[in-house]
Amino acid sequence: MRIDILTLFPDMFAPLTVSMMQRAQTKGVVEIKTHQLRQWGVDKHGNVDDSPYGGGPGMVMRVDVADRAIGAMQSEAGGKSRVILPTADGKPFTQKDAERLAKYDRLIILCPHYEGIDERIRDLIDEELSIGDYVVTGGELPAMVLTDAIVRLLPGALGKEESTHEESFRLVETSHGKRRLLEYPHYTRPEEYRGKRVPKILLSGHHGEVAKWRQEQALKRTKKRRPELL
Questions:
Q1: Entry pTM
Q2: For residue 182, what are the contacts with CB-CB under 8 A and spacing of at least 6?
Q3: CATH class of the domain whose range is 166-229
Q4: What is the C-alpha to C-alpha distance for residues 155 and 192, in angstroms, rounded to an integer?
Q5: Backbone angles phi, psi at 5, to 5 degrees
Q6: β-pairing verdict for 127-130 and 116-117
Q7: Assign residue 28 a region: left if phi > 0, alpha if psi is -120 to 50, beta otherwise?
């Protein structure tokens, strides 16, 4: 997979060069490229925004700049690609979206900043996604969240493929059919700490009973914390 990120602040994406993201790129699982939007700007200063028609505070990203930037990425794209706009009023991003987007060969993420975007930019976008009901300064942090959630699902990205099979929001077969559950609780050494002990079942060596306990705990935790998932 290749992910192209169009942004005014490429330096913000340093977190994508460490840890699992770095390993995935080194192994050739994914190629992540950041592109300075100003190279498609309208003057010698590379301006990408302007004051809003009708007045008001802040600056608005220009549609012509966005169109040139997205067009340049699409002209290079081979295979199946998708253009994404991180925005507060977009569809809430879920694990199901991450699983779906992980199947694409190419993703193009446009990061708005400051006040917002010219409404006509939305016509250039395949989908708009929100990482939560709050507002951040720009699309850079949401773009990193989307990238991390998607890349870790790619074959070979994690050290152990089963790492993605037993975590929150995975699809699990229950007595009520398939449901997305939160992850079960984990424990490690020491066996006892400040009066709290590791559940005996985890020390039993009975793998079948451990698996049963974990699913019961996942269901219990989901009912308590995220009942809407059920």
A1: 0.89
A2: 168, 169, 218, 221, 222, 225, 226, 229
A3: mainly alpha
A4: 37
A5: -115, 120
A6: unpaired
A7: left
- Please answer whether residues 84 and 70 qualify as being in contact, where contact means their C-beta atoms are separated by less than 8 angstroms: no
Q: Say how far apart CA 2 and CA 29 lie, in whole Å.
A: 9
At 28-83, the pLDDT tens digits run 999 999 999 999 999 999 999 999 999 999 999 999 999 999 999 999 876 678 99
User: How far, in whole angstroms, is CA 136 from its chain's centroid?
Assistant: 15
The tokens describing 130, both together, are: 């929100």
- What is the spatial distance between Cα 26 and Cα 34, in angstroms, rounded to a whole number? 16
Tens digits of residue pLDDT in 119-157: 999 999 999 999 999 999 999 999 999 999 999 999 999
- Going by C-alpha positions, the residue among 102, 119, 114 that lies closest to residue 139 is 114
- Taking the CA atoms of residue 59, residue 62, residue 63 and residue 67 in that order, the dihedral angle to the nearest 10 degrees is -130
Say what angle helices 19-26 and 140-151 make with each other, to 10 degrees.
Answer: 60
Domain boundaries, the chain: 2-151, 166-229
Does the structural domain 2-151 have CATH classification 3.40.1280.10?
yes
- No. of helices (H) and no. of strands (E), the chain: 5, 12
The residue behind tokens 């229950």 is 174
CA distance 108 to 83: 5
